[in-house]
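Help: read this over?
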Amino acid sequence: MTLNVIVYTSSNQKISNLNLLERPLLKQLQEFAQLLIIPANKISDVDRNHLSLLLVLNKENTLLLKRQYEDLPRPILFLIDEESHNLPMVLEASTWLNSNSIKNEILCSDNNHIKKRIQQLERILTTEKRLMNRRIGILESPASNLIASNVDYFLTKRRWGVDFIDIPLNTNLSPLYTEDFKRIKQEIPDNVDFFTPFFHLIRSKRLSALALDLLKTPNKLIPSIISACSRLSKSHFPIAYQTDPQSIFTMLATKLLIGSTPTLSLPIQMDLSNNFIKLVTYPGDYNNFDDLKPEDKITILKCGNYCLDQFYLSSGIVLSNPQITSNESGIITIQLDTPVEKLLKKPLGSHYVLLKGEYNELIHEFFISNHCIRI
């Protein structure tokens, strides 16, 4: 990890003479990151791909910070250095930014807390950069019956930097609808290699995620589709078995943030008095949860709305061993940490993403930092 340390000091002081890297606070930061010391008057030279920390060492330079506020790297993070007694100066600068609705944060606590927070923010910044120019494939087009789950492709591109690509299936089905339809249908082979065309499609279209409608697939071909998608999922490629743009975006963003591939699910039952929810995965899409057991932590989330600016998030524990249905779907019962009635009062569509483990804090920070509203 590389961190920019932007130093605000008096104009007649040379930064090289301050021996900043020898200060206890910066020494501890160097245990897990490479520090680049940058004078405030050279803020235009800062590499925005790295997290930046503001070190204010002179009260007169708060005026310079005020003039530079548009150029300050986001997120705006202040470091408190006890050796230089800069807390009053930082409080003054932070107050001015807050009064102008400019979000900022003061890192002030024990070193372990500061380290954890910096690593968390670095992870969020990296995910935001990695999302830029990603391409999500939607086979044919978004599902017409999911009337609340579509997105505005243009607004989403402006907001997240992500492209949604509708991929038409150039297949003429009219020859099937003849008197010989039943015979032709019976001649569909039991096993069809879908992995190769999927793989070529992903490479040729430069896709980072893919959504397809499994329910529109002929029953005889479903096992072959699932087999191909399972191979792709094992390589941590996000695939949704429903053409739901909001859900496949949530899966991609979560995968980049957390590192593991989430699973798409549908709520099928809610118990308000006991605060649990029962969800079912799509057929064959249970491989990520085959080792799930009671008391395991699980996270449920969804990024929704027309320009993906709202999100639902909760964690909980698994109440019982998941049930496997005859079509290899998984039914999971979760005791939520937040009131389940939130999903009834203001739902975000019919699909929700499941992730093994408890990631509430990190996911919340990620979406809030991107100006999303938590439902």
Observations:
- The longest strand covers residues 263-271.
